[in-house]
Design goal:
single chain; Cyt_c_oxidase_suVIIB; transmembrane helix; mitochondrion inner membrane; mainly alpha; Cyt_c_oxidase_suVIIB_dom_sf; elongated; transmembrane
């Protein structure tokens, strides 16, 4: 059991060293996402808001949000097809 634990610790230590070497060797210049990420997010959100503002206010689409008061039920007909009168 001791050999197995020692080997496991050795493997994890080697992995940590490899990750450190890998991350330490890349250039210090910012990549595309670090450079333009926030600008793209803000401009995309602004574009989305502008398009929806135009659609909601200028296109003349009738938005039927609720059918309350607009739908009137028909009188119910019985099984025989005739209305029951009491």
């Amino acid at each position: 059991m001791f050999r197995f634990a020692k080997a496991a610790v050795n493997i994890t230590a080697q992995g940590a060293r490899q990750v450190g070497v890998r991350h330490g060797s890349h250039s210090a210049a910012p990549n595309f996402h670090e450079k333009y990420g926030n600008l793209l997010m803000v401009s995309g959100a602004g574009f989305c808001v502008a398009v929806w503002a135009y659609v909601l206010t200028q296109t003349g689409i009738t938005w039927n949000m609720s059918p309350v008061g607009k739908v009137t039920p028909r009188p119910w007909k019985g099984v025989g097809g005739e209305e029951e009168e009491e």
